[in-house]
Amino acid sequence: MTESKIETQPADNKPAAANKQASAAKPSSSSTAVKAKRRPILGIAFVVLLLIAAALAAAVWYQQKTFKQAQTALLEQAQSSAATARQAASTAQQALELAQSQSARVDTLKSSQSDAQAQVDSLEQAFQMLTDKGSDLVLINDIDHLVQIANQQLTLSGNAGNAIVALETAQAQLARANRPSLAALQQAINGDVDRLRAVSTIDVAQLSARLDELGALVGSAPLLIPDDAAPGVDTSERDAALMAQGSTVATPADPNASWWRRSLDASRQWVAEGWSMVRHDLGSLLSVRRVQDSSALLLSPDQAGQLRENLRLRVMTAQLALMMRQPSVWNSEMQVLVKALASHFDTKAVQTQQAQKLAAQLAATSIAVKLPTVNNSMQALDAVREANTKAGDQAGSPSSLDVAPQENGAPGSEDPQAREGGAAHADGSVSLPQAAPGQTLNGQTAPTQE
User: Fold this and answer.
1) Would you list the domain boundaries of the chain?
2) Where are the compositionally biased (Low complexity) regions (predicted)?
3) How far is residue 406's CA from residue 413's CA, in Å, rounded to a whole number?
4) Which of 106, 153, 323, 376 could join 162 in a cystine, given CB atoms 3.0 to 4.6 angstroms apart?
5) Which phi and psi angles does 439 have, rounded to 5°?
6) Architecture of the domain whose range is 131-201+371-391
7) Closest listed residue to residue 438, CA positions, set 448, 429, 430, 428
8) Cα 318 from Cα 328, distance rounded (Å)
């Protein structure tokens, strides 16, 4: 700092400076020492500056290296991204081409589907038409079968219950079908069902069970003459009754009575008991009965067995008459059974009395019940078949434009036989028309094919 001050002084002060140099020569040794002390500090500072510069250079070098590496990585990543982008573009192009081809195929399939759908719709319409016609025919055949079953039940067995069940089944089928063209048939069946329900029916099962009971009583009831089926009348109850009667006659003696009174009571009791025993013995030896047919007392055991079998056969005949609705046979057989029970069986026996009561009740039961018919339903079926036949003939007949002109006359000059439905041949023979099943022709009904 002293040196700088010396250097900055102006030139007009040189004498003063010289004086000062002379005065400063003395302390030169001290400034030299100070400079010597400052040199190591400058070296250290220089070394520090070199280290800082080296560190800065190393940092710059490392940063540049890192930047180059990052730049290289970014370049590689950009190249890979570009390759990926090119690959994605290629894939997208392929996908676009595939989508275009699929779109073309979809358009083709749509057109094919529309064509197929149109064909399916036309087939469904045709099938629906055929199904409607076929279902009507099947339904009519089923209804005809059920009506025939009802007619058989009424005609053969007279079972109104089974006939009602068959007609109710036909009603249910018509209700499910809901065909307006079959409304008249449904009304006819409803009317027949109502008439059958209004008829007073006979409980065939109950009457048949009572006939079985009557047959069992006929086989076990005692005859006037004991046989193998009823060897004899059980007299145990009668003996017990007589003994009870004898016991009731005897009265206990009064212990306070006199001896002659007690003797008189004892003698009366002995006489009553003796008379009861004698009457019992005489009753077992002798039997007085009033018999309408004297031949009933002359039956042998074999004849008695044949009589029982004959009566059981008549019971079976009455059952058949009940099932077949034959009131004349029923009445005759029941009258024979009532007479046989009254003339050949012991009417005092409990089983005989039960058999007589049951036979009288059955004989009083009338099985002559007039059942209605199902002719209305059958006529309605015939009308439906005739209408279907006419509709089919009209649908299958050629139009007026397709009919060829007649060669041998005007259109109005046809043969009267042909007008009536017959066809005249060249040899003079005439073929009558074929009537549809259930259709009337000249007052006759054609047979129905089931």
Assistant:
1) 41-74, 131-201+371-391, 202-230+298-368
2) 14-32
3) 10
4) 153
5) -95, 140
6) Up-down Bundle (1.20)
7) 448
8) 10
Give the burial string for 240-271 (b: 16+ CB within 10 Å, else e).
eebeeebeeeeeeeeeeeeeeeeeebeeebee
Instruction: Judge contact between 256 and 265, C-beta under 8 A.
Output: no
Contact between 170 and 143 (Cβ < 8 Å) = yes
CA distance readout (Å), 74 to 65, 67, 69, 399:
14, 10, 8, 92
d(CA 160, CA 166): 10
Helix (H) or strand (E) holding 276: helix 259-285
Cβ contact 272:319 at 8 Å: no
pLDDT digit string, tens, across residues 132-191? 566 778 888 899 999 999 999 888 777 788 889 999 999 998 898 888 888 899 999 999
Q: What is the CA radius of gyration of the chain?
A: 68
C-alpha atoms less than 13 angstroms from C-alpha of 104 in its C-beta half-sphere? 5
pLDDT confidence of residue 210 = 92
Structure token digits, residue 226: 């004991």
Q: Which parts of the chain register pLDDT below 50? A: 1-15, 17-18, 22, 24-26, 233-238, 242, 246-250, 398-450
How far is Cα 224 from Cα 303, in angstroms, rounded to an integer? 13
Positive or negative: CA dihedral 224, 228, 234, 235: positive
Whole-angstrom distance, CA of residue 362 vs CA of residue 319: 11
95-105 pLDDT tens trace: 999 999 999 99
Strand partners for 423:
431
- Whether the full predicted model's pTM is greater than 0.90, yes or no, is no
Give the pLDDT score at 296. 55
Q: Are 147 and 170 in contact (CB under 8 A)?
A: yes
